[in-house]
Predict the structure.
Amino acid sequence: MDARQLKIEAARVALGRVENGMRLGIGTGSTADEFVRLLAEKVESGFEVKGVPTSERTAGLCVELGVPLFSLEELPELDLTIDGTDEVDAALRLIKGGGGALLREKIVAAASKRMIVIADESKVVDTLGAFALPIEINKFGMTATHRALDKAAVRLGLGGDINLRMDGTVPFETDGGHFIFDASFSLIPDAEALSDALHAIPGVVEHGMFLGVACEAIIAGPSGIKIMNNKGSQQI
Ligand code: 5RP
């Protein structure tokens, strides 16, 4: 089974968690795209859902495939969000933002009663940090913010480069008009302490660690689907 097929399998199981009429946050990335494709097929056969996209990219795909969309202003409380992830650990802590949508993803997930993560098994880690942590920053004072990030990292004993994400020759810009620093810490032993330290820096808009947000992860591997939740993990 190739990587795309694994994403489709995880998305298929997640679709089974979506009930008719739900207000649904819809994530961003290649795994979330597979979920949108399956959801669109179901919508075409009469299933009703009110989608709230986490990015312009996802909004575009939903419009193209006929998934009904609403803004978070219209639906500020959601029943469920389904999204991909760059890393997930056994406590369902996540690193997200590889696709640059972390801020809207976090706002939408926080507005949802439940967030379910879908991924292939390559995303499961013992400790967060191998994936460079995306940190969304305000453009104003970005050099000062970079220095503040360096100092916070040193204080917490974290090494590695913190690089401005580029889109060709220009900085990558998020849907919210911000830039992203990718922090290659390699290992984040205390995600909560790092989260607090990042939130204390005024130029930081948000970071890509989702702590205490997801309630379930649906992980697809060659030997089947693994469900991770607060009771542990179980193969189905
Ligand atoms: C986008 C994200 C994505 O969910 C994350 O990058 C995973 O993407 P993919 O499913 O393509 O591996 O956080 O901001």
Remarks:
- The chain has a mean pLDDT of 98.
